[in-house]
Structure formats: C-alpha cells, structure tokens
Design brief:
The protein has nine helices and twelve strands. The chain is of the alpha+beta class. It folds into two domains: 3-142, Jelly Rolls (Sandwich), CATH 2.60.120.10; 145-224, Winged helix-like DNA-binding domain superfamily/Winged helix DNA-binding domain (Arc Repressor Mutant, subunit A), CATH 1.10.10.10. Helix 6 packs across helix 9.
Length: 225
C-alpha cells in the first residue's frame, strides 16, 4: 500500500513514517465493486474502515421501510468507528457508489492504536462533531426548507465535496441517480427530476452531460436563504 494514501485519512495525518508503517501492517485491504453493501445496519461492529479509493453512501432504513441516505464519503474518509467505541451494532448501512478500496482494522488493533496514539482520539472527536452538526443541519432542512432549497443545498454540498472547476462552472464528479438524491433530501425521484429540470431552465445548473455542472452557485444559495 502507498503510505501517502493512509496520510489522507485525518486520523493518521500527523503520524510519523514509522507510525504510518505500523498502521499499514494492521490494515487489510479489501476491494468492493460498485453498488455493493460493505456493512449492513444492525451488523456487529467489529472493524474500522478507512476509504482508500472511491466513494460510498451511508444510509438507514426508516420505519416505513424507505432508505434515507445520510451522507456521501470519499477517499480519505472513514466509517465504522462508532460501533467500535461503544460495542454497539452498526447504526447504518454502507453501499459503494463506485469501485472501492477499503482498509480494514480489527477492533482490538484499533483499540491498541487509540491507546498508543492520543491524537487519534482528538481527530475522532473533531470528525464526529462535524458529522453531528451536518446531521442536525440535515434534520432542520427537512423540517423547514422546501424541496427546492433542500436540493439546492445538496448540489452545493456535492460541488464543495466533489467539484472540479470547468469553464461552465463547477462540475460534480460524483454521479448520483435521481433516486439517490431523493433519498438524501426526503422526496421522490420524480420530484427531484422535475426540480433539476427547473434549475436547468433557470440556468442554475447544466445537465447536458452525465455530470451536473453548477453554473450559478450564488443563485442556488439564494434559494436556501
């Protein structure tokens, strides 16, 4: 494994070369094809996962049996830490959106890393706080914003997370289906399709290719305000 890949994981960013090499010895690399489940909600939490390549969706099932996508993670992110910390079952499922490589560290090895490297604990707290804040914002948005505002917010978030600058604006490199976007903003696929087409008509976005381009980020922000 390229040690520089591990350095993209926030928990290990400040590690020395010797410490990174030690982590590498603990990591088991697993390759998972697109559209596969890596862990299921309710599974025992016996491993920590570092995303070395690709992107995944974190989702939960509602009481009505509908899937809600909580977040999208990319290379350098991690998941599975909560179940290791409190010995609980997995609180969400993780599905690959692309071909993925994950680095897996077992519970006992992860606990040893925590004990020997307090900086991991601090980085965990910071990341968990960020995720909690984003979850609260998502809940608030679902309660008080209309679908145009929620979808505009999602597009801006994806542009910030997966965007690359092109002459027309910011191209979102991560492709999501309309159903996946609907699962993230709490509506139907048909509503997302109509709203995206309306955004296109208003020249807020461009959908002439497989990847959405955000043309007018300020216009999308005004919908949220």
């Amino acid at each position: 494994m390229d040690l520089s890949v591990l350095r993209k994981i926030p928990l290990f960013a400040e590690f020395s070369d010797e410490q990174i090499a030690e982590v590498e010895r603990l990591v088991q690399v697993r390759r998972v094809p697109k559209h596969q489940i890596i862990v299921y909600e309710g599974d025992p939490g016996d491993s920590f996962y570092a995303l070395l390549k690709g992107s995944v969706a974190i989702s939960r099932m509602t009481g009505e049996g509908k899937e809600t996508i909580l977040s999208i993670l990319k290379e350098g992110d991690f998941f599975g830490e909560m179940a290791l910390l409190d010995s609980s079952q997995r609180s969400a499922s993780v599905k690959t959106l692309t071909d993925v490589e994950v680095g897996i560290i077992t519970r006992s090895d992860f606990h040893n890393l925590l004990a020997q490297n307090p900086s991991i604990g601090l980085a965990l707290v910071a990341t968990l706080a960020t995720r909690l804040r984003e979850a609260n914002e998502q809940i608030a948005a679902s309660a008080y914003q209309d679908i145009r505002a929620r979808l505009a917010s999602l597009l801006l978030k994806l542009a910030a997370q997966f965007g690359e600058e092109v002459p027309e604006g910011t191209r979102i490199t991560q492709r999501l289906t309309n159903q996946e976007m609907a699962s993230m903003v709490g509506t139907t696929r048909e509503t997302v399709n109509r709203t995206l087409n309306k955004f296109w008509d208003e020249q807020l976005i461009d959908m002439r290719t497989a990847h959405i381009v955000v043309k007018d980020g300020e216009g999308l922000r005004k919908l949220i305000e």
